[in-house]
């Protein structure tokens, strides 16, 4: 329970056996009253077993569906088990669970709350095509959602019952669908979206990519995904 | 003459393949019927390539063979798009199945864990009772 609400933390994980135990342990330590669901997205390592041993509930997909597939499973679990709030955090430890009560509080007046980098707290910077992609996404999505969104690809989000219900039925499994397209879809249906600044930490395991070619491809794909999301119903 | 033989034979071999696949139930009827329909049009054309020259002339295409080539490519493109569409639908179906499966497995695991703790608790309670009776 956080502020009288039943809260489920959903952690989509793919081959994260190196960091998942620490992430689950930290969430359970900081937030004793919440349930943690690790969605193992077809990992080939011991992610599911490690997460279960750390005290999380585990839903193991038989094969890899991508973050979107894992997240719809998480929201279906939240809906079926009657949770008031579902919060998504990354399995690599870059999201600080101490922000969770803040996100939950904001759900009183909003339907979807996003924990955003570059919004004042913490230090996090990107340059080049990746930065242009972020500027383009946040510019367009801020207009669509009628609220200031600076970090549209953040995987740190909190949803209330209405949005859980929607995401349990509809959640795209495509590339960037879990972030960009869900935002467009949610905003278009009149749900109130709000972002809060959060500090991000260094990943506990894994490395982010820095190749310029990959950054250009990312920009192109982000543009394509955004355009598609805008012309879809 | 030689060309007619080659094209005609190819058409007949394709026809035999489709019929055999359908006979062995390796091909769903909806696809089998599609290809049979195509072959019914293609085989006469392979035997008499001049058949479409009049139609081709009407559309401003010099040779009937060119028209067939053009229509063939358009048709194959449409088939490919249709197959992509079918695969997308299939992926959505298998995705839902995978999610259902994962939810059920999580539920079974949770129930088993609950049963085990319950069993452990009752055993412990029973032991405590025995001890207290003894004492």
From TrEMBL, chain A:
The lineage of its organism: Bacteria, Bacillati, Actinomycetota, Actinomycetes, Micromonosporales. The keyword Cell division does not apply. This is Glycosyltransferase involved in cell wall bisynthesis. Residues 9-164 form the Glycosyltransferase 2-like domain. Keywords: Transferase. One of its GO terms (molecular function) is transferase activity. The keyword Nucleotide-binding does not apply. It holds the Pfam family Glycos_transf_2. It comes from Micromonospora matsumotoense. Gene3D superfamilies: Spore Coat Polysaccharide Biosynthesis Protein SpsA, Chain A. Belongs to the glycosyltransferase 2 family.
UniProtKB/TrEMBL annotation, chain B:
The chain crosses the membrane at residues 6-22, 34-52, 58-85. Keywords: Membrane, Transmembrane, Transmembrane helix. The keyword Transmembrane helix applies. This is DUF2304 domain-containing protein. It holds the Pfam family DUF2304.
